[in-house]
From TrEMBL:
This is Phospholipid phosphatase. The chain crosses the membrane at residues 12-30, 135-152, 159-178, 190-210. It holds the Pfam family PAP2. Residues 87-202 form the Phosphatidic acid phosphatase type 2/haloperoxidase domain. Keywords: Membrane, Transmembrane, Transmembrane helix. InterPro entries: PAP2/HPO, PAP2/HPO_sf. It comes from Lactobacillus melliventris. The keyword Ribosomal protein does not apply.
């Protein structure tokens, strides 16, 4: 019993923490808190410049976080998992992505924050907070980290893959700020939301599949 309680804490508590952090961050943004304004301005001054090489990289790499690209990548991943008979992982992937991106659409229209008024380096439509690119990439590549940890046996390969997956959302978030289509606080909000939904999805995967699978294996 104590072990069960501990494992639940290991998954549910981090999810709750990130949900609370996200809620606080969203409230600060929605209320136009001075801290958010100062944070955005400081980060923009650090990140943005006129280097043509970085401009080319940012305007190209940012496409990896487009909704259509993320959707296609998710569908391919779900199909691969289903064909491999990893049905619980496929449901985890699809459910987590639908939940995160669906909620993102709702909160975008609830807060209705306008995008930065400076000239955008790439096309961008809709409201600014949270960054959809950041939510989608943090959730999808977070899912890939979870799947890598669960399914890859080789420790070296597991470590390398996890580091690679972690770099993608960070770079995509960076390109959104650099391209002037999002405030830094939009990107942070997107990361917090994506991670929160990832942890919620993993909690369901753990408790409704992994734990029962482990219990069955102990019977033999």
């Amino acid at each position: 019993m104590n072990k069960t309680i501990q494992t639940k804490r290991d998954t549910i508590i981090p999810a709750t923490i990130f949900l609370i952090l996200y809620a606080i961050w969203a409230i600060l943004v929605a209320s136009e808190n001075q801290f958010i304004h100062n944070f955005d301005q400081t980060m923009i001054n650090i990140i943005c410049n006129n280097n043509p090489i970085i401009i080319k990289f940012a305007t190209t790499f940012t496409n990896l976080g487009n909704t259509n690209v993320i959707t296609i990548e998710t569908i391919i991943l779900v199909i691969v998992l289903a064909l491999s008979k990893r049905f619980a992982c496929a449901v985890f992937t699809a459910g987590t992505m639908i939940g995160a991106n669906g909620y993102n659409w709702i909160i975008k229209h609830a807060i209705a924050r306008q995008r930065p008024l400076t000239e955008h380096l790439v096309a961008a439509h809709g409201y600014s907070f949270p960054s959809g690119h950041s939510v989608g990439s943090a959730t999808l590549f977070g899912i890939l980290i979870v799947l890598t940890i669960l399914l890859i046996k080789n420790k070296a390969a597991k470590t390398v893959l996890c580091l690679v997956w972690a770099c993608f959302p960070i770079l995509i978030g960076y390109t959104r700020i650099f391209s002037h289509v999002h405030y830094p606080s939009d990107v942070i909000g997107g990361f917090l939301e994506g991670i929160a939904f990832l942890l919620i999805g993993y909690s369901f995967l753990y408790h409704y599949y992994l734990e029962s699978q482990r219990a069955q294996s102990n019977l033999y």
